[in-house]
Design brief:
The chain has 7 helices and 10 strands. The chain is α/β, with parallel strands linked by helices. The protein has 2 domains: 3-82 and 170-265, Rossmann fold, CATH 3.40.50; 94-168, no CATH class. The chain has a 7-stranded mixed β-sheet, sandwiched between helices. Strands 3-2-5 form a 3-stranded antiparallel β-sheet, with helices on one face. Residues 18-253 form the ABC transporter domain. It holds the Pfam family ABC_tran. One of its GO terms (molecular function) is ATP binding. Keywords: ATP-binding, Nucleotide-binding, Transport. This is ABC transporter ATP-binding protein.
């Protein structure tokens, strides 16, 4: 049976990798002001995979940018207990003049890791995403799916340091903004499976933004639904029971339609 969570349930964890409390975000001034997010309370536990779901324009990407530190909230607070949050976008955004391996090495180099150590770590991460044989290729020589795998390896290089995964160290956090949206259905399905495999192999929390209900249910341990603008958390579902996947997908889809319809009627 589908488990629906109370909005505040996940926010009781004092050891959350990231916690948002009363987060509000506005853009513009005066008559042109737009409220993208309003009173968002959300927490992600260390190692938890949370999917953030909502209609286009509801503030999902804005929320992710705030967590990443790319922007600041207008009100409320965001508390991070993680090591170097890493972001993966819809576009791979690889450096075209660098090889796949050098792209993965880039955050390690910026972190001050020595040449030998970062080459070894890049090789490990490319192997983890099953690209051990393409380290010397440049982005234009790779398929769209392969470029996204390189982008995933680069994000892991930034977010996941084995030395920081020991007991007492801060957990890692990976922020993903619709990373598979631009891919064809078959490649997307494959990479969803690969992401789950990689996530199970590492010690990192994931906050994954999507507008695709099936993707959210397949990937997430918890699905969080945002209202249409301004974005607020309206409902959450525990999606760990795979036997309820079809029922949960239908329930979330119906609730999402209600949210969109109520916004359109306002």
């Amino acid at each position: 049976m589908t488990t629906v969570l109370e909005v505040a349930t996940a926010d009781l964890d004092a050891d959350a990798a990231v916690r948002l409390a009363g987060v509000r975000k506005t853009f513009g001034r005066g008559r042109d002001i737009v409220t993208a997010l309003d009173g968002v309370d959300l927490a992600v536990a260390p190692g938890e995979f949370v999917c953030l779901l909502g209609a286009s324009g509801c503030g999902k990407s804005t929320l992710l940018n705030l967590v990443a530190g790319l922007d600041e909230p207008s009100a409320g607070s965001i508390t991070l207990r993680t090591s170097r949050p890493a972001v993966m976008f819809q576009e791979a955004a690889l450096m075209p003049w660098l090889t796949a391996a050098r792209n993965v090495e880039l955050p390690l180099r910026l972190a001050g890791l020595g040449r030998v150590a970062r080459r070894e770590r890049a090789a490990e991460l490319l192997d983890l995403v099953r690209l051990s044989g393409v380290g010397r290729k440049r982005p234009h020589e790779l398929s769209g799916g392969m470029r996204q795998r390189v982008a995933l390896a680069r994000a892991l290089a930034s977010a996941h340091d084995p030395a920081e995964s020991q007991e007492g160290r801060d957990p890692a956090l990976l922020l993903m903004d619709e990373p598979f949206a631009a891919l064809d259905a078959i490649t997307r399905d494959v990479l969803q499976g690969e992401l789950l495999r990689v996530w199970r192999a590492i010690d990192a929390a994931v906050l994954f933004v999507t507008h695709d209900v099936r993707e959210a249910v397949r990937l997430g341990q918890r699905v969080v639904l945002l209202s249409s603008r301004p974005g607020r958390v309206v409902q959450q579902w525990n999606t760990t029971d795979e036997s309820d996947a079809a029922e949960t997908t239908e329930e979330i889809t119906a609730r999402l339609r209600e949210v969109i319809s109520s916004h359109a009627a306002a």
